[in-house]
Amino acid sequence: MSATTTRTSPQGRTRATPKAAKQGSRARSASVASTVVMIVIGLGFVVPLLWVVLASFDTEASLSVAWPDRWSLGNFSAIWNAETTFRPLLNSLILCGGATIVTMCAAILCAYPMSRFRFKAKRPLLLTVIFSTGLPITAIMIPVYSLFVQVNLVDSMGGAILFLGASSLPYAIFLTKGFMDGVPVEIEESAWTEGAGVLRALWSVVIPLMRSGLAVATIFTFVSMWGNFFVPFMLLLSPENLPAAVTLYTFSSQYGQVAYGQLAAFSIFYSLPVVALYLFLGRSLGQGFAAAGGVKG
Amino acid sequence: MTTDAPPVAARAGSPAPRRRRSHLGDRLTLSRALPMVPAGLLLIGFMLGPIIYSLYLAFTDSAIRGDGAAETSFVGFDNFMDAFTDGDFWNAVGLTLIFTVVSAVIGQNVMGMLLALLMERANRVVSFLVTSLIIAAWILPEVVAGYLLYTFFASEGSLNTLLTSVGLPAQDMLFTAPILAVSFANIWRGTAFSMLVYSAALSSVPGDVYESAALDGAGPVRRFRSVTLPLMRPAIATNLMLTTLQTLSVFGLIFIMTGGGPARQSQTLPLYMYEQAFSYGQLGYGTAVALLLLLIGAVASIVYLRLLPEEDKR
């Protein structure tokens, strides 16, 4: 009862005091509460990440997050060889780098006519592209595998690159066309009047003007391929072809007893490139992506 | 889609200079469509081809070993009938729905919205650090995320260390409720996407709308329900659709954490499909299950598209 009276009495007085002061204090307490909730959520998210960092420096790492008794680089040196680490990472680079090049070249070429010319099928074509971005690739992997067996492409790096490239293409076309629409046509027109051809105008006028957008699309494509497990898991078989995503899975099944410290160290090596790319691009990676893809789908 | 509008308007406004010597804004001719050929071939060969082939494969007894391997024959709707009468199939459908609703529709969406709202109010440094962590969880490769959350939920894992250190009873979720463990894992991994979508959408809501609502005496909850939510409806519907489709096809995360087990208790449709097609070698049957998975995704998309406001639907 007394609590309510003490609460109502300042309320009564606010009639005299400026309203802004009350709102200011309320905003401040909301800010403090928000910060506290944010920290709690952050703690929930950080624990698994903390495990992989701490365990990688602990040769006797267990499943639980723990401060290493002795900090050591033993795990890193144990996997510091071609067979465990470098070849899978190189394979990942060939697979994802190759597929990213395939995707981005095809996407830029395809986006240009879609962005610059008029045609009746434009809207249906764009809608088809948008809908196929939502197609769950997991659901078509069995027929893809079956087809690859028939044309003898299973376990071929080239085949996996082409499929991975094609599977990222709808989204890359959608993103690239969006960025290309943002390049004003007028600048290009002067290139046209000076006699530049289609490819020339695209290469020396349009592409330089959409560099930052292309960087976002390229890095996003690469990062999502780098993390892909199911496609190389299905399409590549022989150990010398396997990318890091698949060898990390065989890491635990191969030797029975799992050396968790080494697994953590390998996970760090494998994750470093995408984390570095993310740091390089900053939030524009996520935000450009979310703004382009999520909000105005 | 909306990005088409300005060039069209410009074209309509100034037709004369455009027609003079420029070719831009002109009709697409065969030679101008030539750059689209590589993308077209890739999409037809590697996307459309397999989809059409799956429509055939699902009606055959194609297999890796046994009868269907030597000579594939047409079996009509047998694969679908087998699926509908198989208890394991319905188990997988149920688990897929639980997984999708708990981790995507509720988990990622509510968490993403909450974080987007918190980001606007919380201390800047804290919210930068926390959102960086959340985005890091999203950017990590799927297999790495699978291992990290396996160790987190394992009986000797981090979660139990934390629980017992504060005197709470230990859990063994990977065995007692594996579908919840993988759902939480998917929330951990996927929240960043919803958070970024919603924070982009929130920042496009003009501030004076809130001010006038506040002047009219609307409290924070009322403002959220009557101002923010309606304005964000397109973003919410699109985000729900995208996260649902992503979650329906999650394979690696569950495969690493539980492998679908124990005793099929976390075997969602992609894992069931994989088991049938590759462990048991029944490619035809696995493809039929994959088509049913696509059907679920299509139905969900249609439902979400109906949530979109009329003017955004086109």
UniProtKB/TrEMBL annotation, chain A:
Organism superkingdom: Bacteria
Annotated stretches, region: Disordered: 1-25
Major site of localization recorded for this protein: membrane
Subcellular location: Cell membrane
GO CC terms of this entry: plasma membrane
Compositionally biased region (Polar residues): 1-14
Keyword annotations from UniProtKB, A to Z: Cell membrane, Membrane, Transmembrane, Transmembrane helix, Transport
Segments forming domain ABC transmembrane type-1: 89-281
Keyword Nucleotide-binding applies: no
Stored Pfam families: BPD_transp_1
Its membrane topology: Multi-pass membrane protein
Residues passing through the membrane, by range: 32-54, 89-112, 124-145, 157-175, 214-238, 258-281
PANTHER family for the chain: INNER MEMBRANE ABC TRANSPORTER PERMEASE PROTEIN YCJP, MALTOSE TRANSPORT SYSTEM PERMEASE-RELATED
Descriptive protein name: Sugar ABC transporter permease
Protein species of origin: Brachybacterium alimentarium
Upper classification of the organism: Bacteria, Bacillati, Actinomycetota, Actinomycetes, Micrococcales
TrEMBL record, chain B:
Gene Ontology BP term (one): transmembrane transport
SUPFAM superfamilies per the UniProt record, alphabetical: MetI-like (SSF161098)
Low complexity bias locations: 1-16
Record membrane topology: Multi-pass membrane protein
Any Pfam family hit: BPD_transp_1
InterPro entries: MetI-like (IPR000515), MetI-like_sf (IPR035906)
Compartments in which it is found: Cell membrane
Region of interest called Disordered, as start-end residue ranges on this chain: 1-21
Keyword Transmembrane part of the UniProt annotation: yes
Membrane-spanning intervals of the chain: 37-59, 89-118, 125-150, 170-188, 240-263, 283-305
CDD domains linked: TM_PBP2 (cd06261)
ABC transmembrane type-1 domain: residues covered: 94-304
Keywords for the protein's UniProt record, in alphabetical order: Cell membrane, Membrane, Transmembrane, Transmembrane helix, Transport
Cellular component GO terms held in the UniProt record: plasma membrane
Family the entry assigns: Belongs to the binding-protein-dependent transport system permease family.
Protein name listed in UniProt: Amino acid ABC transporter permease
Naturally occurring in which organism (per UniProt): Brachybacterium alimentarium
Lineage, highest ranks first: Bacteria, Bacillati, Actinomycetota, Actinomycetes, Micrococcales
